[in-house]
Amino acid sequence: MRTRVQTVLLLFGVLAVAAFAVPLLLFTASDRTQQLVLARSSDLDRFASLMDRAAGNGDTSAIAAEARRYTQLYGEPLVVTDTRGHPVVQTGGMQAADPAVAPLVDAALRNQSTHPRAALRPWSRGHRMFATPAGTGTQVSGAVVLRADVDTAAGDIARRWAAV
Hints:
By secondary structure, the chain is an alpha+beta fold.
């Protein structure tokens, strides 16, 4: 009898801990994913602003230099195009004509931003693609596409999950 009661209490305890831990784990993964999206969206906005300025004055040297420095510093390639989809700058081996990049450029030129929707998990690897139009309001002056590495964010999530 005692063994049965202990088994039921143990089972109840495990279920109670799981009921509190699972939402906490999912929240921490969602929170870290949101941090990644906000950081990369900020980077995209910076490059979109530079591209809009370059489209206005015809000088693309500033955005080209900034994009190369960004890729050297963070190791994340990006592509910036003009309104016709022709590349202004391509870094890190990523090309505007790549099958994964071309649809994002087209969407950005239609004034549609693209950000990953799914939350990262500790086992997430590889990269996520981000795209945004350059310009103000409905006036699109180009597109910016960024390939962000998720390994660091996934590692942060794994550490947070291990702490829970």
